[in-house]
Amino acid sequence: MKILVLGPGAREHAIVLALLAEEADHEIVCAPGNAGVAASGVETPALAFTDPAAVSAFVSERGFDLVVIGPEAPLVAGVADPLRAAGVPVFGPNQDAAQLEGSKAFAKRIMDAANVPTGRAARVTSVEDAGPVLDDFGAPYVVKADGLAAGKGVLVTSDRAAALEHVATWAPHGDVLVEEFLDGQEVSLFFFADGHNVVPLSPAQDYKRIFDGDEGPNTGGMGAYSPLPWVADDFVAEITRTVALPTVRQLEAEGTPFIGLLYCGLIVTSRGVRVIEFNARFGDPETQVVLARLESPLSQYLLAAANGVLADQPAPEFSADPAVIVVIASEGYPGDVTTGRPIAGLDAAAEVPGVHVVHAATERDAAGGWVSTGGRVLGVVARGTSFGEARDRAYAGVDAITLEGSQHRTDIAARVAE
Length: 418
Fold this sequence. Notes:
Elements: E1 2-7, H1 10-20, E2 27-32, H2 35-39, H3 52-62, E3 66-69, H4 72-76, H5 80-85, E4 90-91, H6 99-102, H7 104-114, E5 121-124, H8 127-137, E6 141-145, E7 154-157, H9 160-170, E8 176-179, E9 185-194, E10 198-200, E11 205-206, E12 209-211, E13 215-218, E14 223-226, H10 235-253, E15 259-269, E16 272-279, H11 286-293, H12 298-306, E17 323-329, E18 342-344, H13 346-350, E19 355-359, E20 362-364, E21 370-372, E22 376-383, H14 387-400, E23 402-403, H15 414-417
Parallel strand pairs: 1-2, 1-3, 3-4
Antiparallel strand pairs: 5-8, 6-7, 6-8, 9-10, 9-15, 11-14, 12-13, 14-17, 15-16, 17-22, 18-21, 18-23, 19-22, 20-21
Helix pairs in contact: 1-11, 7-10, 8-9
């Protein structure tokens, strides 16, 4: 197939690597991609990937068989709409359905309508609104920006003043949600969706906080592992029945069919599983470990979802080997980051058995060396016959890489490795 992957990050690099690993001889283009994707031998043309008209013109000119939309920004901008209207198979929801991620208030309404288990929430528009709501819900306080915030719009704190400050920061940009605090282990579970049916992938757990022990501010994700040996045997079937299918069927009933990747952010509480959030695309960095274990052809499911025929597909097969990813971030992340610093040791990291490196924010300098360009720079992904082996390999890869001032968590998958 001739496949266009839209997006610039590590998630898109992981998708490209999974497609390249298939036996089929695909022609793959990743726009705009990044330097790591280009180093994988894939064309990375410059493209305004959040501009529906620009993307449509590019697809029309090049004649792709499938378009895979990676990040949330082009989905919420409606990039999928004109492509689908033109008859192009697209893996990614239309603008209306992408509000499942683009608006937390919309997602809560859909969950309520579909009887999907989730926590209480209240919408506020100002600090004055928020005070009584925070007092009603009680500490710890959970405050979320309604719209997209690159993983940084959520605050969980026992400090009421900090909660109000978070409201003050985000209220000028739109509504803010105050939610019930839910305590338990978090799970990320992805589903391929074709507008009517869903097919689950293997669950993963990610680490959102910047520091070891889940301390510090939220980030876009500092690491992940898959599978989850501590969930019940019927966990995936239960979430399919109680969360994913009802959500997709509710959207279908409202005339906004969801076609693409439904990301269910879940928490396993003492009162059962609850939905924390939905995303409308593959999560980063969980995608890197889930796809590292996927043994079925990824393109088969992407195309079947785009064409509405997931019911005809067998369940995807996964390796029993665990996978772990450790993210290397720039100095200052998730605040003001220092970029432009040289990176060394990528080849040495890739030589560690079972390891590959995905690029999130890198470029080549004039001499052909690697330099950092953003907050989360690289992800070191490792598979092993046990969690301990996968974890040891991932950290061996991390240790082989040098980036001045860089930071990474040292406790990714430590609980399951023990």
